[in-house]
Each structure stands twice: as structure tokens, then as C-alpha cells.
Design brief:
about 170 residues, alpha+beta, 3 helices, globular, Lipoprotein
Length: about 170
């Protein structure tokens, strides 16, 4: 006959293993989840676009990171009219700032879509969805400049997803 201490210890060990397993499975790093299998691009190259120079070309395989306050730009290559979704994961946030702006340019910068968002709204989005996103439909084929800037104080990771309009 087992004594009460032995039974308690065995049940505690089982519960501990269960809780440890639950913790390991259920608590992923959301930054790692956001990045997934993408590879970091330092965005320190010189790619010509719209009479300017962008640091990188981002697509489904890459992401970049940096710090706000500041501005950055990169190129997305669109093979056909597409829905472009720009997503930010932010951490080390110390100030919401006044405004975050994202500008999607058509190829050759013949047109643009400018989206400005209040700093508090950016943080609200982060709290609700763990990411801040902006989206636009780009109809031209080729290289498109995407610019963004913010006066918030934070570290960010940025990625882009491109979906042809015919698939939506």
C-alpha cells in the first residue's frame, strides 16, 4: 500500500510535466511567429526606383527590421495587379508618437496611396492583433516603391504579402 506522500508526489510530477508541456506548446514567441520562415534582409543595398534608391526588395521570403522614429523604403515586385499587405510587428515601444505614414506607389511612381494613422491607433492595433497592417491594391506591373515613417519610439520588423487580385 502506497503512502499518501508517494501518491501526492507522483500526481504532482504528472501535473508538472503536463503544465510544462502546455506552457511550451501554447506560449510561442509572437515575434518569431510573425517572422516565420522568412529571412532577414538588412536592406542596405542600392536598388533604383522612381528616381530614388531603395535598400531592398521584399517579398514573401524576406523581412526587414529597424527602429522608429525614422523612415524607410523598399521595393515590392508585382507581376500582375495585386493586393499588397504591409505588416509591422513592434516591440520595445516607449512612445506612440503622433503619426505613422505608409505610402504605396504604383510602378514608376505614376500614382500613390498615402495612409496616415494616429500613433495611438497604431498601438491599439498592436494590442488587439499583435500587428499593425496597411493594405493597398496596386494595378501596375513591375517595381513598386513602398515608404513608411513614424515618430513613435519602437523597434519593428516589417514584412509584405502580395496576393494577385484574380485570387481574391
Amino acid at each position: 500500500m502506497m503512502n499518501v506522500v508517494t501518491v501526492f508526489c507522483r500526481n504532482a510530477q504528472r501535473a508538472g510535466v503536463f503544465l510544462l508541456t502546455l506552457f511550451a506548446v501554447g506560449c510561442g514567441d509572437t515575434r518569431d511567429d510573425f517572422i516565420g520562415p522568412r529571412v532577414k534582409d538588412a536592406c542596405d543595398e542600392s536598388w533604383p526606383v522612381c528616381g530614388r534608391v531603395a535598400g531592398c526588395i521584399l517579398g514573401a521570403e524576406g523581412y526587414s527590421e529597424g527602429r522608429f522614429p525614422g523612415r524607410s523604403q523598399f521595393i515590392v515586385q508585382v507581376p500582375e495587379a495585386s493586393h499588397v499587405k504591409l505588416s509591422f510587428y513592434m516591440d520595445e515601444v516607449t512612445s506612440a508618437g503622433e503619426e505613422t505614414v505608409v505610402i504605396f506607389h504604383e510602378e514608376g511612381c505614376r500614382a500613390r496611396t498615402r495612409q496616415a494613422v494616429d500613433g495611438r491607433a497604431v498601438l491599439d492595433s498592436m494590442e488587439k492583433f499583435s500587428v499593425f497592417t496597411r493594405e493597398a491594391e496596386l494595378t501596375g506591373v513591375g517595381d513598386h516603391l513602398i515608404e513608411f515613417e513614424s515618430d513613435m519610439q519602437a523597434r519593428y520588423a516589417v514584412k509584405v504579402d502580395i496576393t494577385p487580385l484574380r485570387n481574391r
